[in-house]
Amino acid sequence: MNEKLIEKKLREKIKELGGRAEKFIPTYFVGAPDRIVLMPGGRVYWVETKSTGDKLRSIQQTRKRQLEKLGFKCYKVDSKQALDRFIEEVKKDVD
């Protein structure tokens, strides 16, 4: 699965749940995840989308750890299965 398709499916599924999966384009936060997922009730998730099999770059791994240390949930989504797992986690938080 390529990254563009994964991003499209992510946006669609999050919208169905009443949220938004916004493209995050930072100027000074190199390596930040691609998407910030905003859900009702103030829930926030960071998502790095990748084509199937692609790994996080070193700076992306660092940013993921930094965000998690601050208490944010941060995910790498690179396949239909990873997307489905992420959506199930979001649904648990919504219920």
Automatic annotation (TrEMBL):
GO molecular function: hydrolase activity, acting on ester bonds; nuclease activity; nucleic acid binding
Domain of life per record: Bacteria
Keyword Transport in annotation: no
InterPro entries: tRNA_endonuc-like_dom_sf (IPR011856), VRR_NUC (IPR014883)
Residue ranges of every copy of the VRR-NUC domain listed in the record: 1-81
Cofactor(s), names only, from the UniProt record: Mg(2+)
Record key words, sorted: Hydrolase, Nuclease
Protein name listed in UniProt: VRR-NUC domain-containing protein
Source species of the chain: Vallitalea longa
